[in-house]
Amino acid sequence: MRELWTVWFPLLVLAGATVVWGQAPLGQRKTLTLEAARKIAAAAEAEARKNNWNVVIAIVDEGGYLVYLERMDGAQLASIEIAQRKARSAALFRRPTKAFEDQLVGGRQAILALPGAMPFEGGLPIIVDGEVIGAIGVSGVTSQQDGQIAKAGVDALLAAR
Length: 161
What we know:
The chain is an alpha+beta fold. The chain has 5 helices and 4 strands, in the order ααββααββα.
């Protein structure tokens, strides 16, 4: 009898746990798809081309991991890293990178100590139904122009919804 108990008891516990865990309410998270990232990048690229600006466009998921990267012909090589850092900063801090730039310009130098914070405009979180699902980072022209391109990308996604 003891052998039966040692075999069946763990199985019953596991089955009970599975039923309890299976009934637990789980949240439904929105995610940034590759298709959506391409649409965002296409709109951002169109804005850059309209103005004859050569830039790098980086799209990351909510964790700041790269989903899509595009380097337009003639864009400076340093912009590859900068665009990714702007996007990652916007995703992880859940705010435009311009917020950090504004604080730094206002004299708050402590911003420079925040790990991963990019104090240059051009990074925007992608927010759908109040949820950050990713971010875009643009680099290659002035910070304000980078921000204009990033906004065109995000606006195109939101308009298509």
